[in-house]
Amino acid sequence: MTDQPPQELLDQAANFGDATTQLLQECFEDAPAMELVIKGTRASLAPEGQTDKRGGIPLLARGQRLASLPIDVLCRLDATLTYLAVDKSKIWVVAGVDSTPIFRFEYLYDADWVPHSHIQVHGERGALAHLLSQTGHPRPHNMSALHLPTGGARFRPNLEDVVQFLIVDCRFDALDTWRTAVDRERAEWRRVQTRTACRALPEEAAAQLETMGYRVTPPDEGHPPPGRKALGGW
Fold first, then answer.
1. How far apart are CA 114 and CA 119, in angstroms?
2. Residue-wise burial string across 170-195, b where 16 or more C-beta atoms lie within 10 A, e elsewhere
């Protein structure tokens, strides 16, 4: 019998997908809904109709589609089988003119030699290629071979940050409701991440609360140890 994802995972992933759909549809015209797909014991979320080579959120400039925003998030339950966790996520900005990525915002929970959270930029610069050729990098002329770290697993950029970057900095078309949606969902993300950070470093969280006047009583067996990636994850 093939293992199936627990119902708790499917329920939480569906809620996450609904919230992501609402965010995107309040920011971009014609944004498709996020679709949940079972992949083994995991739950995957991506825009409806997205494949490996096409689809995603349309990015328009003056009404013309110039790029797309493919999104792919693989979810599981955390070690306690209580909270939704992300195994990996990919948020790409893909140019319509040649269907190749420009920016790649990625997160890999089980990353080995690359940062868990990183950005890759597809571009060229002679000075950088020269530097990398001198260091012996195997791909000195390919900027996308560099994985720019962005704060590790806990403090990585979220989808809301990417959306605001596309609207404010890149100046893609946006709906009038985009700022309210981004502020709302970013606030929720940071609340969740703060709670998660406290679970990963409970002794530090308790110590900080005590300095602020809170009374914190540790468990009878003492503070749980830090999470596996809480202090050393790149």
1. 11
2. eebbbeeebeebbeebbeeeeeeeee
DSSP category for residue 138:
S
Q: Is the pLDDT of residue 18 over 60?
A: yes
Residue 154 placed within a domain: yes
Does residue 124 lie within any of the structural domains? yes
Cα(91)–Cα(119) distance, integer angstroms: 10
| The length of the chain, given as a count of residues | 234
User: Cα–Cα distance between 90 and 74 in angstroms, integer?
Assistant: 9
Residue with tokens 């979220």: 158
- Specify if 57 maps to a domain: yes
- 7 alpha-carbon distance from chain centroid: 23
Tell me the residue range of the domain where 44 lies. Answer: 7-200
Round to whole Å and give the CA distance between 101 and 78: 31
C-alpha 26/C-alpha 24 separation (Å) is 5
pLDDT tens, 130-172? Answer: 999 999 999 999 999 999 999 988 889 999 999 999 999 999 9
Element (H, E) at 136: none
The encoded tokens of residue 56 equal 């995603």
Q: How many domains does the chain have?
A: 1
Q: Check if the beta carbon of residue 171 is closer than 8 Å to that of residue 178.
A: no
Q: Which residues contact 193 (CB under 8 A, 6 or more apart)?
A: 154, 155
pTM, entire model: 0.93
> pLDDT for 191-225, tens place per residue?
999 999 999 999 999 999 999 999 999 999 999 88
Alpha-carbon gap, residue 104 to 197, rounded angstroms? 25
